[in-house]
Amino acid sequence: MAALTISRRREVMQKAGWKIDQNDEACYIDIDEPEEEELAENDNYSEWHTLPDILLEEIFSYLTYRERYYASLVCKQWYNAFYLPLVWRNFLVDDRTLTRAKYNYYSGWQYCLDHIRTQNCLSRVGKYLRGLEFRPEHSFNNIFQFMTMLSWSMDKGSEAKAPKDLKNVGSRIRSLVYVFPCNMSQANDPEGIKLFGTGGQLLKGLKELLSKLRNLRTLKLIDFVLERFEAKHLLDEVLEACCTKMRVLNLVNVTTTHCPIMHVGLFINLQILTISPQNIDDDALLLLADTKLKHLHLLQNRYTSTHLSISPCSVKAWRQLKRDNPRLKVHLRVESMGDGEVVFQPEAPVCSVTYESPKSKIKTDFVLRMVDHYKNKLSVYGYEMLPRFTSPKPFHNRIDSLMLLIARQCFNLHTLFVREKVSTSTVLLIARTAK
């Protein structure tokens, strides 16, 4: 009788288990045995397990890493979908990625990188990664340790007698995005911005990782705010590793002061370049004239210095650029919460001027200068986001005449954003004029 009782208890224990919740805490789950009638009703399963791989890839790409793991336990088809290449085309690394809670007597509970979990992750899906995106908020040590472990795994995987689980780790990575939170202490105070740049060991770890990525096509380094001596050597390893393979390069606010980045003109097959106006000069433009560059975006955001403190490139350099690379299109853009203004580039082949700034107003003097210099090339002009100011009611104080001037003079214009108050007649005239 006692043996029968023990066997029944074992059967019950086998139908229960432990599960890790969102806070990395274990909870015991007891599974109730369904009745025979319920089992008969549940025999008709849905057909989710028969979905084609192309749909499963798309579905799995929207799930978090934890949700992907739980979904892979459903059936064999979903388990195989967990390892499909497109599921891991972009790997986001933030403060909580592959971490565990650890108590610190000084700071309390903190999330630290779990090295065993990270190593298992890289050994299983590292060869499928096609894109890396680093978005730290406060814990830069976790990002640094992850980059160090990834670099070490790529080194070991490239050896002649490499472990089987580390072979080809990171070999398919084609893009890398790193957004630095340089306004950590004043995140909710846009008027009192304090900049904190990266550098030191964190920059060294990033450069070491970039030197291992030989097939990189897209690189975006945003808001690094480096010193001049660090910025001048930022792309040394990238240029050596993928000089002919780079297609898209995004360098926003490498420095806040004037510091030209000459490396941008040495990627001979570069097609799209996004850079801040303080990091480009006449010499860089002359180098870009000999490349296959198609789009040059001059971007200013909330951390960029004011347009009054930034000197534009010379007219001579822009004319030589247009002569040597006539297909190049220049795009001017401002992304700021304040009243920002673009750095005017005279004689540049500007095709678009856009603002993502709720407090910026259309200024008459800039519109006249823009029409005078860019009327032959300009195709897009406007302000995004809803305005945070009141438009004047009198007609002579509104922007109606300026909008009509742009529509009449810029004959290549095909997109015009109007967010301020205009009359219905003005809209009809714009629709008739700008065809």
UniProtKB/TrEMBL annotation:
It holds the Pfam family F-box-like. SUPFAM superfamilies: F-box domain, RNI-like. PROSITE patterns: FBOX. InterPro entries: F-box-like_dom_sf, F-box_dom, LRR_dom_sf. Residues 45-91 form the F-box domain. This is F-box only protein 39. It comes from Bactrocera dorsalis. The lineage of its organism: Eukaryota, Metazoa, Ecdysozoa, Arthropoda, Hexapoda. The gene is FBX39.
